[in-house]
Structure formats: structure tokens, C-alpha cells
Amino acid sequence: MPEAFVECEELVAALGKHRPGWILNPPPPAATKWFHQNRADWLHGFWTRARRFPTRQAGHNDTLGGETIVTARTEVAAKKAFSRTSNVTLDTVSLTDPDVTNVELFDPANGRRFTTQYWRLGAATHFAHQLARRGQSNTYRDWLDPFLDHRRTADQRAWMSFWMEVAPTEVPTQWLFWAAGVLVPLVKVNDGSVFDVQLAAYMARADVFVTADRNLARVAQAMADAAPIPIARPVRARPTSWTTTLAALGGG
């Protein structure tokens, strides 16, 4: 399943635990029907189209994610530029260092400042943006509309309060996205770096993470060392060319 599905599945479970009144009961029939149709397509139809019409499906995927990918690449490049000017490297950053993990916010309701973790702020902002996109084609709404009472989630103060309570072990994907966003720009960056951040979503649901990319393996190991839950163990594979692979398979 796509990372958006994984994110939403974790969010619904966390809300069911911390804010059960925000979960619709019963779920709306139309949204529920579309949810199951969409899920079935991802489990079967998508992969059939990818196998039979790879170029067409790739073009469709680019259309869906084009603007988001461009924005994400810009953010990664900006972080890389900052790390260079600040002389920050993968070896000098720890995901358990409060200077890296924490951010100070201001609560206008009581006029006080408080400290929280960056991943909480990032997750709250990310989902709030996705939920606000009503009336538009939006993947996150497809996965969340059958479950969430949007009148409750639209209350900004209540929404932030929820994110201050939830544990990273309940929404590990959000912690992993934050961690990858911190570490990936500290190694060699290219157009594929943004997808390295995306891959982080799956590390909470795998036992082993295999890559021929030395820098990505280093990032994955740093994440595994600090993650709040056990995640995939990174294993660096030996880079192999297509010609070598074909020869090994008897294809020339």
C-alpha cells in the first residue's frame, strides 16, 4: 500500500485511542464504498496496470505527485545548502540530541512558550494541510473521510493538543519522515533524494532494508539506532550493473 495509506491507518488508530469521539460511527456509506474500492485497486489493479502499461502508469503517477515532488526537492536542496554552510554532517548529528529534536512554540491562549518535538509539529501541519483540501482530489481524504469527523479535526487548538499527546510509537511513520528529512540532506543529494525520504515510511513495517546506496544505508542505520520502535535493519547490497545481472540470469 502507498505511504499515504500507512500514515492514515496510523492516524485513525491513534485518534480512536486518544479522541474516540472524533471517529465517525457509523461511517458514511459513500466514503466507505470508495475507500474499499480504492484499497482493492491498490492491492490488485494498480499492479496489473504497472505491469501491463508501465509508461502510462508512470506518467499518471508523475501527474499526481509532480508539484509535491518539486516542492520536496526544493526543501531538500535548501537543507543541504544549510548543512554545508553550517558544517553539519551525518556524523555530527544525533536524532536523540534535544537541539535537533526539539522546538519551542508559543501558545497564544495562555501567553506561554512550551517545548515539543519537531516531528509532532510536522505531522500536525502535514495532516492539517491535507484535511483542508476539501472538494479536491486528495489521496489522504480518500483514506480518512470514512472515519474522521472533520468538524472536530478542524479545531486547531484541539488538533494540536492531540498531537502533543500521541506517542511516536503510535504513529512511527511520522517520526520516520521527520528523521529522514533531517538526515537525507546531510549526505549526497540528487533528484532521487526526495524518494529516499518517502521510503522511510516502510521501514516501520519491514524486517530488512536492502540498498546498494552507501549513503542511504548510513542514513537508515542512524534512523534504526534512534527510532522509538524496532525498524528495518539496513543491509547494503553490492552494486550490480544490468549487464552483470543479465549475465547471471543467463540473458547475455
Structure description:
The protein has one domain (3-248). It is built from twelve helices and four strands. Helix 2 (29-52) crosses helix 3 (54-85), helix 5 crosses helix 9 (172-183) and helix 9 packs across helix 11 (214-226). The mean pLDDT is 85. The chain starts with a helix and ends with a helix. With 252 residues, the chain is mostly helical. Strand 1 (102-107) and strand 2 (112-117) form a beta hairpin. The strands form two sheets. Strands 1-2 form a two-stranded antiparallel sheet. Strands 3-4 form a two-stranded parallel sheet.
Major sheet characteristics: 2 strands, antiparallel
Count of DSSP helices? 12
The parts where pLDDT drops under 50 for at least 5 residues are none
Helical content (DSSP H or I, runs of 4+): 55-70%
Distance between the termini: 35 Å
Shape: globular
Average pLDDT rating? 85
Q: Could you give the order of the helices and strands?
A: HHHHEEHHHHHHEHEH
Strand order of the largest sheet: 1-2
What structural category arises from helix and sheet content? mainly alpha
**Structural domain tally:** 1
- Strand content of the residues, in percent? 5-15%
Number of β-strand runs: 4
CA radius of gyration is 20 Å
Question: Outline of this structure?
Answer:
By secondary structure, the chain is mostly helical. The protein has one domain (about 5-250).
For the structure shown, list the relevant keywords:
two-stranded parallel ribbon, globular, mainly alpha, 12 helices, two-stranded antiparallel ribbon, 4 strands, 252 residues
